[in-house]
Every structure is written in structure tokens, then in C-alpha cells.
Amino acid sequence: xxxxxxxxxxxxxxxxxxxxxxxxxxxMANLEYGIxxxxxxxxxxxxxxxxxxxxxxxxxxxxxxxGLDDTVGQWxxxxxxxxxxxxxxxxxxxTGGIRDYLTLLALSGRSADDDISLGELLALIGRQExxxxxxxxxxxxxxxxxxxxxxxxxRASGMSLAEFADEHIFTPLGMDATSFCDDxxxxxxxxxEGHYYGEDGWHIGRTGLxxxxxxxxxxxxxxxxxxxAHFYGGRIGDPGLLEAQHTVGxxxxxxxxxxxxxxxxxxxxxxxxxxxxxxxxxxxAELVRFPEQHLSVIxxxxxxxxxxxxxxxxxxxx
Length: 318
Known about the structure:
It is a single chain. By secondary structure, the protein is an alpha+beta fold. The longest helix is centred in the middle third of the chain and has 15 residues, at 143-157. The strands form four sheets. A six-stranded antiparallel β-sheet has the order 2-1-13-12-11-10, with helices on both faces. It has a three-stranded antiparallel β-sheet with strand order 5-9-6. Strands 3-4 form a two-stranded antiparallel ribbon. It starts with 9 loop residues before the first strand and ends with a helix. The protein has ten helices and 13 strands. β11 (271-280) and β12 form a beta hairpin.
């Protein structure tokens, strides 16, 4: 149904040996103006952004600006005693026990629809008098950890995460239409609108959040092909960056996770696979890479009920 006339849908790109073997837009980028999706349409990619935030942190570490074994207390004394001993590495691997700010917002009666600053979110996290578990003892996905990781890069570098990523990732890779959008009111050329379907029809997804780190990247499937190429040649950073990006987290008891630097390192039918999905305000995203086959499938959708991960794996199976 995704190619039905008048419906938002997705852009799909299939890469084999670094070459585009299929690229197509399905459905509409903007229902109000009747603009169709193509492979240059720009989507918000939600948590698929986390791999860029983690890469920025790893690059900052390579530059000697911070250490991933630094504690949250070193960089964020305002977050108090409860968070003081959590390391940035644990924040990256979701093993720090930091409570998810989206859940905290919901409990406080607010949501991502509201205009909320980074300072307010850090204050909300800092008001928590305990963690969900002792750091390093368990694994629980937390957007707060990536908010903290992003701000640590900003404080260490003297640049915003958007500026750091542009200088050290997007510009070197020629990703001219990709950015961390840290202003909810900013103009984004070729932006597709996110949509959800309600009882009375289609609605546009909105957010007042201008924070980045856990999400916030706007990009296209063709732009992500340039990022994908980095994983076959180490096109940014010093030697060792690719290995660090794929190094999974460990619990204190030695248990290995399948979560690395904003990337899930796992398998599909026994075939090694790297991926990370995203979902926010009427957008859905997935980038799936099969390194041994040099095959990648990218699907960016602007409809909240679409499952791009399932679509990517179905295309990969074909």
C-alpha cells in the first residue's frame, strides 16, 4: 500500500559493492503540496542518528578532547551524585542506568510536542535521585545517555554537536544535505513531512524539541550511501575508528551486548549484520549493512505505521 496515490511512504536505496543497484521514492513527501518522494528527499531519521553522535564522541576521543571512560560527573557536575560515576562509554552502550528523558517528560505531563530546551531536559534528568540500575550491571535503552554524550562533545570541543559533526563527518564525506538540526524552526531544503494517520485522516507530525544527540539528523537515502561507504574504507578519523564503532559494550560481569557505538552488531539468518532503526514524529528509518556481502539497504519513511526494518530485511532476503 505504500505506493498508493496520495499516501506518504518511503525512499529506498540498495547498495551492492558500493554501487546503487536500486533507488526509488514511493508515495508523497508532502501531502499539502502534492510533492512526491524521491531519493534526494530529506527525512528526520530519529535514533538512526545515534551512530553519528557516537562517531563524534569517538572522534573527540581520538583528538584528546575527552575520554569515553570519563565520568558524567566530570562533565556534568550539575547532574548530581546519582549520575556522577556513570561513564560516557556506559552512556553510549546504554548500560549507565540513566532514566530516559522521553519517559520522564511523559510522567511530568509534557511531551516531545512541547518547546523544551536542553537545559530543561538536563535539569529533569538531574532531579532523579537514583538510576534505574547500578552502572554496568544491566542494559536498558536510554535516549538520555545520548543527550549527555552529545553535550559532552560540545563542552569538550567548544562547538555544538551540529558544528562538530559537520566539520568532522558530513563535510569530509560530501554529505552536503545532511545535518544535526538543533533548531526546530530551521528551514530544511527538500524536507519530507512526517505523518501519522488519525481517525479523521492524515496529520503532520510535529515536535518542539531542538535537542540533538539521541536523534536530530536530517538526511536522504543518497546521503546515507556516502556514510555507508565510510564503513568499507575508514574515510574519516584515525585508524581504529571503524573498530571502535563496532566494539560492543560489556556489562561488569563480562556479558557482551549486541550494541556498539550507536550500532547494533548482530546477524540475520546467521549472516553478520549491522543496523540501527529510528522512529520519531511520523518518521521511521533503517540502515542495514551486511559487511561480508558488501550489501546495504536503506529505507527512510514519513509514515508512522510503516516498518522500514522489516522492509530492509525483506529486500535483503531477495
